[in-house]
Specification:
By secondary structure, this protein is α+β, with helices and mostly antiparallel strands. The protein is built from 25 helices and 19 strands. Helix content is 46%, strand content 14%.
């Protein structure tokens, strides 16, 4: 099939878009140099100077944005270090402090004073101080590499060296070098971490998780997905581990809060730490993702979560124990379902293949490109094909065993325990291991383990079965449940008492003879063997995807390509606005409390939509004060076409003046393929309205002390 120059432009605009106003997760280090992006932002309505968004030499808006725990984002909103993030981002911390007697998940939590704020030893926030392009230095170190393996070793080594140089100069700093554009560029990010982060406010889950799985990734949405923490520092405002002597942190910049709201077409920008996207991945890689990790998550997690959910709905103590891990698991499970559906519905593979055909034609028409890339596509096709079956089995292996039964996870952590590490790290890991038992029910875990063994066996070929299956056949007559019962009955690490024997280095306890540990060793060996069998193909794929990415950028050298997300700070921008998900349907750009009452009625008897009567009374009063919208109603959530992904949860959503409108917390179901391709007509960022957040804090939580700390713009 022949492609004209016009066809090439159209196809690549679809699949490797040149960043429409609402597309792109932009690097802050390039922002001031990137005049084109700045101009588009101004045209859309940005009223503040671009250099006030990010400036490594002066306080700026980006200074108020944090990486929250390394898995979410957050924003600093007071001179005393208050941080807004999502409820689901703080969920694990809220759960850890909860009990049947003090159920903060169900009832919410508010600290009336600094003394009542709850510490979270494993939690930290990270501030970005500056970024630096170190591509030349990294690639120079790898210039003599003859193989992809040698290149990776050289690149990894110099990345670590550059990062360590930062800490050597200042022990309070962390330097991390990340790869961009499939390993064609490298940037250093310099951070300062604060490790004393305390829980200050959490709404009840009837607000913060309203709708749970049913509403997850859906619009219209009525979830008040927020929580509040505070950063603490030493007396010099520097990082410090938790101590009663620490004081509230005083930030470089505090995000002001707007009560003016938004209208259709209002400018909106998001600052946060998006996790990962694969916008420039080849069609071969997308197809592998669909049939491998996505399908494995769908199949295996669906089985595991059904067991968890049944017990959570029956027993309040189990709901508290399992709420956080269920939430994390189900989030990506539903994401995978939506992604695979969207890839098919939106014909993503067809669009990618058409764009690749256009690139082939461009390569053929340029002799210097043809000489370098003659076998690019045949190599990608061959190597993805060579690892297809094993890679799929690895995906199921990881979900069924490595990320499956908690007994296996405990055993793997024990095997990786390093008694020779710094004392602080050893103590921390010991505590973390012991805490796992607080949220473990062995009866439930046994049922999960048996289900995982059955599910894995039905999904992969015999050659991918680890040694325990032979043991089940020979010693237990193929009875999986009997094998699992015996395993849990004889392993010492099913209880804290057994774990303490290991941690205290009891000489009468032979770790490697423990059946759970022995099993985990077998799993490690099998996982390693499977990975090794496809290592050559994987190296060739890594090289091919890097060459593919570079070729695409050369093809349109005048185009401003944003890099895929990789958990570094990014800016996205666009406008507030609704969308039409399918013919005959139009979704508005915001929701109100009216929808809460409608869903409570529609899902009567469903615990995931249950709301406390006193909260319903408060919302039905209509007395929203200064937090009401222009119609006198209470807005709950809103949507914009900002470009986000996982990790953006808790990201600040700002208006044209850099004032906080709300927090991003979800994407929408119709555009679940957004990590692979941006669909401007469908993709939406769902945010919780900051006015609803403040209303819940002040009127329901009676947290007027916290409201007084905030910098409210009007």
């Amino acid at each position: 099939m022949k492609f004209s120059r016009l066809t090439v432009v159209v196809l690549l605009s679809i699949c490797f878009s040149k960043a429409f106003a609402d597309e792109g997760m932009w690097l802050l280090g390039n922002l001031n140099k990137n005049k084109q992006t700045g101009q588009v932002m101004k045209q859309l309505g940005l009223q503040m100077p671009v250099n006030k968004l990010y400036n490594p030499k002066k306080p700026c808006l980006a200074d108020a944005v944090v990486s929250f725990g390394g898995f979410c984002s957050g924003v600093v909103v007071s001179e005393d270090g208050l941080v807004f993030t999502n409820h689901h981002c703080g969920f694990s911390s809220i759960q850890q402090h909860s009990s049947v007697e003090h159920n903060y998940l169900k009832d919410g939590f508010v600290a009336r004073s600094l003394e009542e704020e709850l510490p979270n030893p494993e939690l930290y926030v990270r501030f970005l101080l500056r970024t630096e392009n170190v591509t030349k230095r990294v690639l120079s170190a790898a210039r003599h590499a003859k193989t992809e393996s040698e290149r990776r070793v050289a690149v990894d080594s110099i990345m670590n060296v550059i990062g360590m140089e930062v800490s050597e100069k200042d022990s309070t700093l962390t330097g991390i070098v990340d790869a961009y554009y499939a390993g064609n560029e490298f940037w250093l990010s310099v951070y300062r971490d604060y490790n004393d982060v305390r829980l200050v406010f959490a709404p009840p889950s009837s607000v913060g998780k309203f709708g749970w799985d049913t509403d997850n990734w859906m619009w219209p949405r009525h979830t008040g997905d927020f929580s509040v923490f505070r950063i603490y520092a030493n007396s010099k405002n520097g990082p410090a581990d938790y101590s009663p002597e620490n004081v509230p942190y005083h930030p470089e910049y505090v995000a002001p809060i707007s009560l003016d709201g938004y209208k259709e077409g209002s400018f909106c920008m998001t600052l946060g730490y998006p996790g990962s996207t694969e916008r420039y991945l080849s069609s071969y890689g997308i197809e592998e993702m669909m049939n491998g990790i996505n399908q494995a998550m769908i199949d295996v997690r669906g089985v595991k979560q059904a067991v968890w959910k049944r017990e959570m709905d029956c027993r309040p103590d189990i709901r508290i124990k399992y709420a956080s891990k269920y939430d994390e698991s189900s989030n990506y499970w539903k994401n995978s379902i939506g992604t695979n559906k969207a890839i098919k519905h939106l014909k993503v593979l067809e669009k990618k293949r058409a764009a690749e055909a256009a690139l082939r034609e461009w390569i053929q028409s340029h002799p210097e490109e043809r000489e370098k890339l003659l076998r690019l596509f045949s190599s990608l096709e061959l190597n993805y094909g060579n690892r297809c079956e094993t890679n799929r089995a690895l995906a199921y292996f990881g979900e069924a065993f490595i990320n499956g039964p908690e007994l296996v996870q405990l055993a793997l952590e024990i095997l990786n325990f390093d008694f020779e590490a710094e004392e602080k790290q050893v103590v921390s890991r010991m505590k973390k291991l012991l805490e796992k038992y607080d949220n473990l029910d062995t009866t439930i875990d046994k049922e999960v383990f048996a289900a995982m063994l059955k599910e894995y066996q039905t999904k992969v070929g015999k050659k991918y079965l680890p040694a325990m299956y032979q043991k089940i056949d020979t010693l237990y007559n193929g009875d999986i449940q009997t094998y699992v019962d015996s395993l849990y009955a004889t392993s010492q690490i099913t209880s804290p008492k057994g774990l303490k024997r290991f941690l205290e280095r009891d000489t009468t306890y032979n770790l490697f003879e423990d059946p759970a540990v022995s099993l985990s060793l077998d799993l490690i060996v099998k996982y390693y063997e499977m990975n090794q069998s496809i290592s050559e193909a994987s190296e060739q794929i890594e090289q091919g995807e890097r060459l593919f990415n570079a070729a695409m950028r050369r093809m349109y050298a005048d185009r401003n390509f944003y890099p895929d997300a990789n958990s570094t700070m990014r800016l996205s921008f666009g406008t507030v606005g609704g969308y039409s998900p399918f013919d005959g349907a139009v979704y508005d750009y915001y929701t109100t409390v009216k929808g809460i009452f409608e869903k409570v009625k529609e899902h009567a008897g469903d615990i995931d939509f249950a709301v406390q009567p006193e909260l319903l009374d408060l919302l039905s009063s209509g007395d929203f004060g200064r937090y009401a919208n222009e119609q006198g109603d209470m807005s709950v959530c809103f949507i914009s076409n900002n470009d986000i992904t996982g990790g953006n949860s808790g990201s600040a959503m700002f208006n044209s003046k850099g004032e906080l409108l709300g927090l991003a917390f979800d994407g929408n179901w119709e555009a679940m393929s957004s990590d692979i391709v941006f669909e401007p007509d469908l993709q939406r960022c769902i945010g919780v309205d900051v006015r609803y957040m403040l209303f819940i804090m002040e009127k329901y939580g009676k947290a007027g002390n916290l409201i007084k700390e905030l910098k409210i713009a009007r």
